[in-house]
Amino acid sequence: MEAPAVDPSDVVISPTILTADPNEFAKYVGLYPTFAKRIQIDIADGSFVNTTTISEAAITALPNNIPVDLHMMVVHPSEHLPHILRLKPNVCIFHAEATEDLLPIFAQLKQAGIKAGVALLQRTYPGTVEQYIKAADHVLVFAGALGKNGGTADLLQVEKVKLIRGINPNAEIGWDGGIGKDNVRTLAHSNIHVLNVGSYIFKADDPKAAYEGLVAEATERGVLI
Prior knowledge:
Order of helices and strands: EHEEHEHEHEHEHEHH
Radius of gyration: 16 Å
């Protein structure tokens, strides 16, 4: 059965937090829930990607007033499970390119009431990880610079959306990488449910205004300029 089209007005703009600084982390994990409907916390182990962030073990609790997703850029997902199960995020996203079989990990997440997500790097074709996409509640199309704030979106990655929907029409689809005012409307009209935004909001003088500007642009109809 073909998945129904995603209405742009239903697309969620989700600010992301990627930092190794505990003070910076505390600032944004407190700020974003005051205006956003959902946030994503990026965790990098320094091995999967050449960046090390604050670890999930250092997080005492997640905000409980909005959904919080964890994007785990880690080599060995199972090593991170104990603290993920403790934190109980909305979705926990592991990379298809990690060194472990994700299916048993997905099962543990779901048993704990946590949605299971899989992220695909630019080089990963959906058909080669079909087993993960079928089992996932959320599929993240990664299209930017992994482990960094900033970067340019590879809009060719949009072609993966149709393939993912063909494999699992019930999966929520997210996008991460290079979102700004110039491309958010295009992405919001591409059958993607969640647009994760890093530096455009994180580095803005007024993060709330930057967020609201993206939300307004995403829901605009008509010709894309």
